[in-house]
Specification:
It comes from Pantoea rwandensis. The protein has 157 residues and is α/β, with parallel strands linked by helices. The chain is built from 6 helices and 5 strands; from the N terminus they run H-E-H-H-E-E-E-E-H-H-H. It has a single domain (7-154), classed as Mannitol-specific EII, Chain A (3-Layer(aba) Sandwich), CATH 3.40.930. Helix content is 42%, strand content 20%. Strands 1, 2, 3, 4 and 5 form a 5-stranded mixed sheet that branches. Helix 2 crosses helix 3 and helix 5 runs antiparallel to helix 6 (144-154).
Length: 157
């Protein structure tokens, strides 16, 4: 069970990409899920994608600052982790004001970790992404390493 979470423990450099080309949110979720599968973070990509999309049906995970935080609590998750993509071009995502999204942070949450740690991580990331200056820096990061460092340095729990 995750009670104390450090972002660098749940985000690996190999799960951060910049300039991802996608035409819709399903492509983004599929791509990030493939990264998680390659790292053995999930054990069934299609099952995990199904669970994430089922969560998407419950309410918007996109924000009006071009950021989305989709997440899936799933039996297909071996270890609670996250994957991040900054998109080359915005894609449509359900937000309050129907703003297209350019930064996606996908959480893969193990069923056993769906308690306080999960909430703390989501809250920490949400607070950081509520800061326009932080979001601007994330949007401008030139490399996946720079994007990784910005996320780790701005989302302490």
């Amino acid at each position: 069970m995750l009670d104390k979470v450090v972002i660098s423990d749940i985000l690996s450099r190999s799960c951060v990409v910049t300039d991802l080309v996608a035409t819709n949110k399903v492509e983004v979720i599929e791509y990030l899920s493939a990264l998680l599968l390659a790292e053995n973070i999930i054990n069934d990509k299609s099952g995990f994608v199904h669970d994430v999309l089922a969560r998407e049906e419950l309410g918007p995970t996109g924000f009006d600052n071009q950021v989305a935080i989709p997440h899936g609590k799933s039996s297909t998750v071996n270890e609670t982790r996250m994957a991040v993509a900054r998109l080359r071009d915005p894609v449509d995502w359900e937000t309050e004001d129907e703003v297209a999204v350019r930064l996606v942070i996908l959480f893969a949450v193990r069923n056993a970790d769906s308690s306080i740690g999960h909430i703390k991580v989501l809250a920490s990331v949400s607070v950081a992404l509520g800061d326009d200056e932080v979001v601007e820096q994330l949007m401008q990061a030139e490399t996946s390493e720079a994007l990784y460092r910005l996320i780790v340095n701005n989302t302490g729990v």
